[in-house]
């Protein structure tokens, strides 16, 4: 059955001519379904825009009526005409590609699980710039490359971020029979937790030197972006940020958080007030890399070298350790995350993204707002 349709847009004709090869479009998909069902022979011909013809006037009237009809709740979905079922998430119809939506949901569910860990309580109370944090974490990895060196560096940074480096207290979880009564290999007094590695009295002078050089480099990088800025103003503004204390604090940011790779929002905002967003990110990436390299080579590697020599003197080879792995189990601590204050588990970020178009990662940056 023939059907002649006037159109005032040449793109409509092009889309219908190539409808079998183009990516699906909701209107094109609906038109193809109608043509197939009714076995139509459709011919489109171009007319001037707003031409005074019956078909064009009728189409204009339908458009105007639909625009002002407040009771019209018909909503076209991409590919809806060819789908037998419409997937939903928490009662919300998924309009974008299902595979991408599942990947996004899984990614941010993982982020919520990480933020909800008891050891990350302060990051739910303070403002963390998670966008900058993850950009600094991924700065060595190209999306289309897999390099062993880059992958190893990223793995080391991830271990810092989640506080899972092989400290004595961490090793007790698998080798309690060996490390039960062991203390910090540097001071020999305190339990060697993640935070103690950096705040140990034996490392304080080194950490202070790294911190001071970090501040000086930040000033230098910022002045490189804008030579009109005053050195004293930039330096004093950075020093006024409450992030430079080298001791661990559960209520505020410290330099240990920067070692982990956490970027406080106040640091990003201060740098961004003087330069562009791209420059700000590049400066933070350089800072993150510098802190990582310096703490790794000046604190962590010497500590590991000393411990390896001490273990070797006791005959604790890798093979010997494996025979004692999980020989005894450490008493479990109450580390469950039930009934945590400021806990997030409803993926509110994705819901706000669907309803209001909010940037998902920015939702977690502003948890305290």
Offer a concise description of the structure:
Helix content is 54%, strand content 4%. It has 369 residues and is mostly helical. The longest helix is centred in the C-terminal third of the chain and has 37 residues.
Which term fits the overall shape? elongated
Mean pLDDT: 81
What's the structural domain tally?
2
Strand count: 4
- What's the helix-strand series? EHHEHEEHHHHHHHHHHHHHHH
Number of helices: 18
Q: What proportion strand?
A: under 5%
How does the major sheet shape up?
2 strands, parallel
Helical content band: 40-55%
Spatial extent as radius of gyration = 30 Å
GO molecular function: metal ion binding
Keywords: Metal-binding
InterPro entries: Rubredoxin_Fe_BS
Protein name: RNase H type-1 domain-containing protein
Q: Mind explaining what this structure looks like?
A:
- The protein is mainly alpha-helical and 369 residues long.
- It folds into two domains: 2-82, no CATH class; 117-343, no CATH class.
- Helices cover 54% and strands 4% of the residues.
- It is built from 18 helices and four strands.
- The strands form two sheets. It has a two-stranded parallel sheet. A two-stranded antiparallel ribbon has the order 3-4.
- A hairpin with a 2-residue loop joins strand 3 and strand 4 (92-93).
- Helix 11 crosses helix 12 (231-239).
- The termini are far apart.
- GO terms for molecular function: metal ion binding.
- This is RNase H type-1 domain-containing protein.
- Keywords: Metal-binding.
- InterPro entries: Rubredoxin_Fe_BS.
